Amino acid sequence: MEAIAQVQAFTAIGIGLIFAFAALGTGIGFGLLGGKFLEGAARQPEVTGLLQVRMFIVAGLLDALAIIGVAFAALLMFANPLLAALG
Q1: ∠ at Cα 63 (31, 27), nearest 5°?
Q2: Annotated catalytic residue: which of 17, 63, 67, 71?
Q3: Cα–chain-centroid distance for residue 41?
Q4: How many Å apart are CA 76 and CA 70, to the nearest integer?
Q5: Of 33, 35, 23, 28, which Cα lies nearest the Cα of 66?
Q6: How far apart are CA 41 and CA 76, in angstroms?
Q7: Would you place residue 19 in the very low, low, confident or very high pLDDT band (cuts 50, 70, 90)?
Q8: What's the rounded Cα separation, in Å, for the pair 78 and 87?
Q9: Are 7 and 80 in contact (CB under 8 A)?
Q10: Which helix (H) or strand (E) holds 64?
Q11: Which CATH number describes the domain made up of 23-80?
C-alpha cells in the first residue's frame, strides 16, 4: 500500500512539473516570437503580412507542444501506467 501512495505522490509532483515547464516554455516562446515579429515588421513593413502568417503557424506549433505536455500529464493523472507495474 505504501508503494502505491509513493508512486501517486511522485506522479503528482511530475504532473506539476510538466504543467509548470509547459507554461514556462510557451510563455518564453511566445515572448520571443512576438518580439522577433515586431522587429521584423519594424525593419521591413512591406512584408508584415507574410511575417504575420508565418508567426501564426509557429504559434500553432508552439501551442501544440504545450498541449502534448498537458495530454501526457492527463494520462499520468487518470490512467497511470506506473501503477500497473506494482499490481
Answers
A1: 25
A2: 63
A3: 27
A4: 10
A5: 23
A6: 42
A7: very high
A8: 16
A9: yes
A10: helix 48-78
A11: 1.20.20.10
Cell numbers at 79, concatenated? 490512467
Cell readout for 72 is 501526457
Would residue 63 show up in a list of annotated catalytic residues for this protein? Answer: yes
Give the whole-angstrom CA distance, residue 15 versus residue 18: 5
Residue boundaries of the structural domains of the chain: 23-80
For 1, the grid coordinates are 500500500
Q: Which position has the grid cell 504575420?
A: 52
Q: What is the 3-state secondary structure (H, E, C) of 4-39?
A: HHHHHHHHHHHHHHHHHHHHHHHHHHHHHHHHHHHH
The set of residues, in sequence order, having a beta carbon less than 8 Å from that of 46 and lying 6+ positions away, is none
Q: How does pLDDT run across 29-45, given as a tens digit for each residue?
A: 999 999 999 999 999 99
Residue with cell 490512467: 79
